Amino acid sequence: YLWGHSYEFNDCDNWDIMEKFAEKAGNRDDVWYCTNGELYDYVKAYDSLEYSVDGASVFNPTSTSVWLDFGGGDELVLKSGETAKIKGFFR
To answer: In Å, how far are 10, 13, 22, 55, 61 from 16, measured between CA atoms?
Structure first.
């Protein structure tokens, strides 16, 4: 997560830090480039997921798709209004 103002790099004379970061993080398919508002909405959607009592399924009541990563390459995209079985998804 990157936060700050461009004038701070001028004031501290450290634009090189930003340039190095941009080289590593720019133009990547595995990086989500979002606004603060988009990040806030996503975190709220993630926090709104409803898990069954036995932990076997999860429901997404929001209008935002949520990505779940269970490790070991196991991922699930839970779309808006979707319920998915997750028991057995863990390795």
So the answer is: 10, 8, 10, 47, 43
Q: What is the CA radius of gyration of the chain?
A: 18
* pLDDT score of 80: 97
pLDDT tens readout for residues 22-42:
999 999 998 999 999 999 999
Contact in structure between 51 and 58 (CB atoms under 8 Å): yes
Provide the residue ranges of all domains of the chain, joining segments of one domain with +: 6-85
CB atoms inside a 10 Å sphere around CB 39: 12
Closest by CA to 62, choosing from 44, 80, 40, is 80
Tell me how far apart the alpha carbons of residues 33 and 80 are, in angstroms, rounded to a whole number: 21
To the nearest 10°, the Cα dihedral for 79, 82, 88, 91?
20
Give yes or no for a contact between 78 and 60, defined as CB atoms under 8 angstroms apart.
yes
